[in-house]
Automatic annotation (TrEMBL):
Protein name in the entry: Molybdenum transport system permease
InterPro entries found in the cross-reference section: MetI-like, MetI-like_sf, ModB_ABC
Sequence intervals crossing the membrane: 12-36, 48-69, 81-101, 190-215
Record key words, sorted: Cell inner membrane, Cell membrane, Membrane, Molybdenum, Transmembrane, Transmembrane helix, Transport
Pfam families: BPD_transp_1 (PF00528)
Compartment(s) where it occurs, according to its Swiss-Prot or TrEMBL record: Cell inner membrane; Cell membrane
Coiled coil: none
Primary localisation category: membrane
Membrane topology: Multi-pass membrane protein
């Protein structure tokens, strides 16, 4: 069965995934909207940056984040100047690393949803003298709801399953940075396969339920 350390890792993982999903939806929505609507030459560059974690090894991303957030890195010097200390091997450091690593799994579904709306609903709203902000909240968001469901589900599930980035940035500190994937790795190293089976099975069930709900209740996914 699961020990207190195992439950602590489960709770920390769910806390991390929830925090990252909410932040990515808040921060990624304007980015996805801009990518879907802009004709700027910078669109391809920003799109490539957003998609970079899909092809970049997690250890590479984790290494450069560790350097950037270290005492001599630009982000580390900024956080020290602000009196926040250093971010590596802390929960906020895990959040930043997970934000970057899970970024394409949230922004790309949102961008696809915004592009699928097309210009017609926006033109109709403009003829009714709706402001851009009112158009976005009253027209765009309801039409893009399936994209938000997909983005939230994939972002949450991907963050739950992270290993390389969180290991590089957070290490293995109980109750602070030891997430489920790191806990499973520790059990395997200790040849404690029974505990590894319990945690791995739990992650498998959570991932399957998340995708099942996505395909069951997301109309756009059902149509595929």
């Amino acid at each position: 069965m699961l020990s207190a350390d195992d439950w602590g890792a489960v709770w920390l993982t769910l806390k991390l995934a929830s925090t990252v999903t909410v932040l990515l939806l808040l921060l990624g929505t304007p980015v996805a909207w801009w990518l879907a609507r802009t004709h700027s030459r910078a669109r391809s560059v920003i799109g490539a940056i957003v998609a970079l974690p899909l092809v970049l090894p997690p250890s590479v991303l984790g290494f450069y984040l560790l350097v950037a957030m270290g005492p001599n890195g630009p982000l580390g010097q900024l956080t020290q100047w602000l009196g926040l200390g250093l971010l590596p091997f802390t929960f906020p450091g895990l959040v930043i690393g997970s934000l970057l690593y899970s970024m394409p799994f949230v922004i790309q579904p949102l961008q696809n949803a915004f592009e699928a709306i097309g210009p017609r609903p926006l033109e109709v709203a403009a003829t009714l003298r709706a402001s851009p902000l009112d158009t976005f909240f009253s027209v765009v968001l309801p039409l893009a709801r399936p994209g938000f469901i997909t983005a939230a589900t994939l972002g949450f599930a991907h963050t739950v399953g992270e290993f390389g980035v969180v290991m590089m940035i957070g290490g293995n500190i109980p109750q602070q940075t030891r997430v489920v994937s790191v806990q499973i790795y520790g059990h395997v190293e200790a040849i404690a396969y029974a505990q590894a089976h319990w945690l791995s099975g739990g992650m498998l069930v959570i991932s399957f339920i998340a995708l099942l709900l996505l395909y069951r209740f997301n109309p756009s996914r059902r149509a595929l």
